[in-house]
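User: I'll paste a sequence; please echo it back and then give the predicted structure.

Assistant: Echoing your sequence first, then the prediction.
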Amino acid sequence: MNIGELSTRSGVSPRSLRYYEQQGLVTPQRALNGYRQYAESDVVVVQTIRVMYEIGFSREAVSAVLPCATGKPDEVDPVAVRARVESMCEDLGARIDDLTRTRALLVDFLQENASTGCSAEGAGAWTTSHAKRAG
């Protein structure tokens, strides 16, 4: 199938497909006219890549995990992949903790400024009183 058909079937833009190729994540065949020709299995592969990027995987992480995620585990070191995914889980946990603290600070701000909206006095007091909790 050509790039347009793969894009339609996978929901991944042609620009992203060309980027995935440039990064070595997908390797289409080339027709005699130079056009990219993708395999049926590439639909799932590019959808998987897109999801990995959407949830915050780096290009290196996508490269490391993609073979396992697309049914080609013998192309990678499973111990290294597991270590990479465990590290990503830890990083994600830390980001969730940071976001949870930030959300709590915002909720506090809204509660403390519910009647006045946003005042200079309230903001200064809120910043000072909450800086210790955020750190």
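Strands lie at 29-30, 36-37. The chain is about 65% helix and 5% strand.
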